[in-house]
C-alpha cells in the first residue's frame, strides 16, 4: 500500500505521515522545500516526539521523498500507482498541487481501485476545493472522465504541531492528543483502513466544531496574546484577560454550534475545557506568530471568526467577544507575515466599509456588517 502526501511540514510529518505509516502505508512525501526533501530523502527514519501528560516517541520509516517542484514526472508516476493521496499544504496551495494529481489520474490504470484523495487542511470543504481544481485541470486537458479514477473525501484533522526547532532536523515534536475525522459517504463500503481515523456520514458538525472551537480559541489567544506582548500560546493563555477573551469567544461559538448542529451543551463544555488545557501544554513551544499566521485567510467568510459570528448575528445576537478578537486580528503586525503586512497597508489606505466587504465577504445588508465596520473603524482610529 502506498500513500503520496503533499506537504512534509509540521502536520505532514507529525500527524498524517505518522498515522499513514502506522496503518502500513509506504509514504512518498512531496514538497517544494528542497532542503527538507533532501533531508528526508537522505534519511531512513524520523522520530515523532509526543509531549504532554504522557510523553513518548514514535518512529516513522518506509518513506521516500520527491521534490514536487522539480521532479514532476516521478511524482505523477507515484500518484498513478498510489492508493491514497493526502495534503497538508494550506488551503491556498491546493490549486498548485491539483495538476500533478490530475496528471497521475490520467496515467492511472483504469483497473486499479480509485485513488482516495483527502485534503487535511484547516478549512471547511478543503477536499471539495481540491477536487474542483483537479476536475478543472482534467476538463481543460479534454479528459474529464479520468476524475472517476479518484474518490474525494473531506476531513477534519486536529493535533497541535508547532514550528520545529531547526536543530531537530526532520524529527517533530507534537502534542499527545489527536483526532482525524473523515467523511465516509464518498467511499461507500470501501473506505481505507487507517487506525486512528474516525469515519462519519456527515463531516459538517465535526469540521465546524473543530474549526470554530479549537481554531477560534487558538487564534483568539494568539491575537489577544500578541497585543499583550506574549511570544507563545502557553504564555498568552496565562494572561488572565487573554484567557477570559478566549473563553467568551468560545462561549459564543458554542452557542452557534449547539444551535446549528444540535450538539450536546455538556459535551461542548468538556470539549472547550480540554482544548484550553491543550493550549496551556507547558511542553509545547507554540508561537503566537505561527498560530496567527495569514490573518487575511483567518478573517475569511467561512473561517474561524466570521463564520460563527455571522450565524450569531443572523439569529439576532451581537457576538461581542468574537468582534473583540477580530479587533485583535487587525492589530497583528508581523513584518515577516506577508498577509499581516498587506492587512496593515489596507487598514492605512482604505475605508472600513470596503475592507469589511473585501476581507470578510460580509455584505452591507448582513446584520454583522455594521458591527464589523465599527470594529475596523475603531482599530483604524487608534493607529
Ligand atoms: N500544524 C498544526 O498544528 C496543524 C494542525 C491541523 C491542521 N493543520 C493544517 O495543515 C496544513 C499545513 O500546516 P503545517 O502547520 O504543517 O504547515 P507547514 O508550513 O509546516 O507545512 C506546509 C508544507 O507545505 C509545503 N508546501 C508549500 N507549497 C507546496 C506545494 N505547492 N507542493 C507541495 N508542498 C508544498 C511547505 O514547503 C511546507 O513544508 C495547513 O492547512 C494547516 O492549517 C496544521
Ligand atoms: O493552521 P492554521 O493557520 O489554520 O491555524 C493555526 C493553528 O491554530 C492550527 O495549526 C492548530 O495548531 C491546529 O489546527 C490544531 O489542530
Written account of the structure:
- This protein has 383 residues and is α/β, with parallel strands linked by helices.
- It folds into 2 domains: 2-202, 3-Layer(aba) Sandwich (Rossmann fold), CATH 3.40.50; 205-382, N-(1-d-carboxylethyl)-l-norvaline Dehydrogenase, domain 2 (Orthogonal Bundle).
- It contains 16 helices and 12 strands.
- The protein has helices at residues 10-22, 34-42, 72-80, 94-107, 126-140, 204-227, 233-237, 240-261, 265-279, 288-291, 295-298, 306-314, 320-330, 338-349, 352-360, 369-382, and strands at residues 2-6, 26-31, 45-51, 56-61, 63-67, 84-87, 115-119, 150-152, 155-158, 172-175, 179-183, 197-200.
- The strands form 3 sheets. A 6-stranded parallel sheet has the order 5-2-1-6-7-8, with helices on both faces.
- A hairpin with a 4-residue loop joins strand 3 (45-51) and strand 4 (56-61).
- Helix 6 packs across helix 13 (320-330) and helix 8 crosses helix 13.
- Bound molecules: nicotinamide-adenine-dinucleotide and D-Mannitol-1-phosphate.
- Nicotinamide-adenine-dinucleotide binds at residues 6-12, 30-33, 36, 68, 88-91, 93, 96-97, 121-122, 157, 159-161.
- NAD(+) binds at residues 3-14.
- InterPro entries: 6-PGluconate_DH-like_C_sf, 6PGD_dom2, Mannitol_1_phos_5_DH, Mannitol_DH, Mannitol_DH_C, Mannitol_DH_N, NAD(P)-bd_dom_sf.
- GO terms for molecular function: mannitol-1-phosphate 5-dehydrogenase activity.
- Its EC number is 1.1.1.17.
Amino acid at each position: 500500500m502506498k500513500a503520496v502526501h503533499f506537504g512534509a511540514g509540521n502536520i505532514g510529518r507529525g500527524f498524517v505521515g505518522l498515522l499513514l505509516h502506522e496503518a502500513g502505508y509506504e509514504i512518498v512525501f512531496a514538497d517544494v522545500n528542497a532542503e527538507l526533501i533532501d533531508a528526508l530523502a537522505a534519511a531512513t527514519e524520523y522520530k515523532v516526539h509526543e509531549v504532554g501528560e504522557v510523553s513518548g516517541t514514535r518512529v516513522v520509516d518506509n518513506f521516500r521523498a520527491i521534490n514536487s517542484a522539480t521532479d514532476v514526472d516521478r511524482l505523477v508516476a507515484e500518484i498513478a500507482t498510489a492508493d491514497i493521496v493526502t495534503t497538508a499544504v494550506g488551503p491556498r496551495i491546493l490549486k498548485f498541487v491539483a495538476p500533478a494529481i490530475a496528471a497521475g489520474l490520467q496515467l492511472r490504470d483504469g483497473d486499479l481501485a480509485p485513488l482516495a484523495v483527502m485534503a487535511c487542511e484547516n478549512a471547511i470543504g478543503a477536499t471539495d476545493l481540491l477536487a474542483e481544481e483537479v476536475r478543472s485541470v482534467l476538463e481543460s486537458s479534454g479528459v474529464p472522465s479520468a476524475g472517476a479514477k479518484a474518490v474525494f473525501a473531506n476531513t477534519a484533522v486536529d493535533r497541535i504541531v508547532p514550528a520545529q526547532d531547526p536543530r531537530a532536523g526532520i524529527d517533530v515534536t507534537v502534542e499527545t492528543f489527536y483526532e482525524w475525522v473523515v467523511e465516509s459517504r464518498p467511499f461507500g463500503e470501501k473506505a481505507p483502513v487507517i487506525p486512528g481515523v474516525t469515519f462519519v456520514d456527515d463531516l459538517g458538525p465535526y469540521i465546524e466544531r473543530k474549526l470554530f472551537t479549537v481554531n477560534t480559541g487558538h487564534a483568539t489567544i494568539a491575537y489577544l496574546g500578541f497585543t499583550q506582548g506574549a511570544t507563545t500560546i502557553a504564555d498568552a493563555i496565562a494572561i488572565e484577560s487573554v484567557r477570559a477573551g478566549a473563553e467568551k469567544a468560545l462561549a459564543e461559538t458554542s452557542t452557534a454550534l449547539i444551535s446549528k448542529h444540535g450538539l450536546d451543551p455538556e459535551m461542548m463544555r468538556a470539549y472547550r475545557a480540554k482544548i484550553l488545557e491543550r493550549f496551556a501544554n507547558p511542553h509545547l513551544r507554540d508561537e503566537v506568530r505561527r498560530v496567527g499566521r495569514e490573518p487575511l485567510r483567518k478573517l475569511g467568510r467561512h473561517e474561524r471568526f466570521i463564520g460563527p459570528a455571522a450565524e450569531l448575528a443572523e439569529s439576532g445576537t451581537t457576538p461581542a467577544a468574537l468582534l473583540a478578537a477580530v479587533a485583535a486580528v487587525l492589530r497583528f503586525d508581523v513584518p515577516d507575515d506577508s498577509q499581516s503586512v498587506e492587512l496593515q497597508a489596507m487598514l492605512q489606505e482604505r475605508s472600513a466599509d470596503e475592507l469589511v466587504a473585501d476581507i470578510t465577504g460580509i455584505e452591507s445588508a448582513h446584520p454583522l456588517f455594521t458591527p464589523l465596520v465599527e470594529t475596523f473603524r475603531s482599530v483604524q482610529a487608534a493607529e
